[in-house]
Amino acid sequence: MPKDTLAEVSDDALLVLYARGDPDAARILTLRLAPRALAYAGRLLGDRAEAEDVVQEALIRLWRLAPDWRPGEAQVATWLYRVVSNLVIDRQRSLRRRAAQALDEAPEVADDAPDVLARIMQARRMAALDQALQDLPDRQRQAVVLRHIEGLSNPEIARILDLGVEAVESLTARGKRALAAALRGRRDALGYHDAAEG
Amino acid sequence: MMNTTEPMTDAEIERLLAEAERMEPPVPDPAFLARVLADAAAFQPPVARARPLAREGGTIGSGRASFGGWAQALAELFGGRGALAGMALATVAGLYLGLAQPAVLTALYSEPPLDSLDLLAGGDSLFTEVAQ
């Protein structure tokens, strides 16, 4: 199928086409799914190299599952979030020490930061956020990231984490309170000088 | 002035998380993409080759009203002369669809058969941006 036509094809259909031998479907699907999967895994792990390993492993499972994928039963992205979440948990304990060290490095900053000082402040805020996220229990961290950074709905998160919607709401609420406590005393460092601005 | 030892407010946490949400996801490293695509190629099922269509003689455009050449090929595609003789309009429409989107038809009619296939992205991907 022509590559420009593939760009309009759903994730479901791309996976089926991959299983049927389409030479371009895997590339299109990877470019579509990998960035957000890497961002999600990176926030959970605090280590980009580990995030790449997790996402690569998750995608290997997707390629192997492709011939048996049933279109319409689930969203490929939901499935991938779930597998990444579970793979991250498997690695979490041994990575916590390494994650704290990795956060000392300058994190990536958005290209739209207006000037050098703003970019530095943004980098400090994101580093502080990532460090605080690492201190959360696994499920709270996943729920907060999926809800407030990946922008997913509670029902979608419930499917990914295999929980009820109320459980997801509870996790995100407790996670945000834990973040607030973890970032205690960092207000000035984060550039939040005036509470009225919040 | 707020006591800096107090926890961040809910609004401040929301603001921090919203800033993280607005950041563009990292561009995958080319080496990482190469590894992923190598995996995809390694695990991709082999494509089943279509059985060559037999030809009994005659050529396209010969004007001979026999089941040689393209007519025989068409009959084999649809299960033999008997099936071809009973072909309905819907079958002709299906052939048209196959000619219009040959790759899709290949995907649909290879084994095992599919009940349906949604070709349109239609916003069903969680990874696509949603218009605000």
Task: Please tell me about this protein's structure.
- The complex is a heterodimer of chains A (198) and B (132).
- Chain A has 9 helices and no strands.
- Chain A has 198 residues and is mostly helical.
- The N and C termini of chain A lie far apart (50 Å).
- With 132 residues, chain B is mostly helical.
- Chain B is 46% helix and 0% strand.
- Chain B is built from 6 helices and no strands.
- The longest helix of chain B is centred in the first third of the chain and has 14 residues, at 30-43.
- The two termini of chain B are 36 Å apart.
- The model of chain B is unreliable at 53-68, 99-111 and 128-132 (pLDDT under 50).
- Classes of the chains: A mainly alpha (198), B mainly alpha (132).
- Chains A and B meet through helix 2, helix 3, helix 4, helix 5 and helix 6 of A and helix 1, helix 2 and helix 6 of B.
Layout of strands and helices, then pairs:
The complex is a heterodimer of chains A (198) and B (132).
Chain A: H1 3-6, H2 11-19, H3 25-45, H4 48-65, H5 76-102, H6 116-134, H7 138-148, H8 154-161, H9 165-182
Chain B: H1 10-22, H2 30-43, H3 69-77, H4 81-85, H5 89-100, H6 102-109
Helix pairs in contact in B: 5-6
Q: What's a concise summary of this model?
A:
The complex is a heterodimer of chains A (198) and B (132). Chain A has 198 residues and is mainly alpha-helical.
What percentage of the residues of chain B does DSSP assign to strands (E)?
under 5%
Supply the helix-strand structural class of chain B.
mainly alpha
Residues in helices of chain A, as a percent range: 55-70%
Count of extended strands of chain A? 0
Strand content of chain A: under 5%
The main sheet of chain B comes to: none
Q: How would a crystallographer describe the biggest sheet of chain A?
A: none
Helix content of chain B: 40-55%
Spatial separation of the terminal alpha carbons of chain B: 36 Å
> Cα distance, first to last residue of chain A?
50 Å
Please write the string of helix (H) and strand (E) elements of chain B: HHHHHH
* Assembly state (oligomeric): heterodimer
Uncertain regions of chain A: pLDDT < 50 for 5+ in a row? Answer: none
In the predicted model, the low-confidence regions of chain B spanning at least 5 consecutive residues are: 53-68, 99-111, 128-132
Radius of gyration of chain A: 19 Å
